[in-house]
Model the fold of this input.
Amino acid sequence: MKILLTGGAGYIGSHTATELLRSGHRVVIVDNLSNSSIDSVRGIEQITGQKVIFYECDILDMSALSNIFRDQKIDAVMHFAGLKAVGESVASPLLYYRNNLISTLNLLKTMQDADCRNLIFSSSATVYGMPETLPVTEDSPLSALNPYGYTKLVQENMLRDIWAADNGWNITLLRYFNPVGADESGIIGENPRGIPNNLFPFIMRVAAGQLEQLGVFGDDYGTPDGTAIRDYIHVADLAKGHIKALERIGGLSIYNLGTGRGYSVLECIRMFEKVTGQKIPFAIKPRRAGDAPIIYANPSKAVTELDWRAEKDLSDMCRDSWNFQNKIIS
Ligand code: NAD
Ligand code: UFG
Done:
């Protein structure tokens, strides 16, 4: 199949593009490179030995997007494009509502006009807000804690409404937990601009000597070591989840993509130190506003219906993240 990936030059999109090519699909990437670079497109080609069709295009530009659908016969779309920094979304809500919502509206209208109605959407565990019951299932209550989270909830609702109005659409919502790690080659990975917001990219910069120490946000949660717990999932496993979702696309479906196992911040630091031999100096800081104390997935629906389960563990995530970090330094 020919798959169009919006935001395909980004972290999760580039790993999924690689997996799609490995599985025999053709890949068209549309990305404005606002949070990525052409290097990742070249990286996908280097890893797979195959060509990627790339358009540097902002999907806020609907006529440019329509031209791409006119020129390429697209079978399905994976919609990764979006802004994703929680703190930035609080500071600049308009930027987030405009970029994440208008772009999705443009995409959906363009797909409808081009009669392409197969869509896999990048949702997030953020839609569970502060979960009261753990692990979270796809039926757990939904809420948003910040503008970024609202954009995911609104996009999910838009997609539900579109499907309800026209069952000719096939729409799969994938709710990612905490993607980390990199392709084993070390050629593509996560390389955020500026000072990272997320735990693993921050740990990498400290390990590389680019930042002095990690701040651990809170050690007084009701968890065994007091630090917050998340369900970290290797980005390669996440990418494979997209292939399974594509193979079984039909109707409206929602899946958690997580491992089902949570790790605390201190456990992540210790595992990284053990796997890489690098010391991570850290200091305990106040809790970060809006952080849930604990969240991890119940991934059984994806296991049963998609025949997918995460295979890599936290030590693989640490090893591959560090391998990628070393390649960008050298
Ligand atoms: P990323 O920033 O690496 O990739 C997103 C890509 O979209 C970037 O390459 C960016 O340049 C592009 N983009 C943004 N706005 C665009 C626009 N208007 N037109 C064209 N391209 C545009 O992020 P990622 O980590 O790969 O995330 C991909 C998707 O998964 C996002 O929707 C994100 O919200 C979601 N998600 C990510 C995480 C995570 O922790 N990484 C967790 C849950 C969900
Ligand atoms: N943390 C620190 N220090 C840091 C960064 C993070 O202690 O410098 C802690 C956080 O407080 C949290 C944990 O590490 O307890 C993980 O934080 P991340 O920022 O890496 O991830 P979040 O769970 O907060 O959020 C991420 C994405 C969201 C997404 C969510 C669920 O940033 O966009 O995963 O998929 F919605």
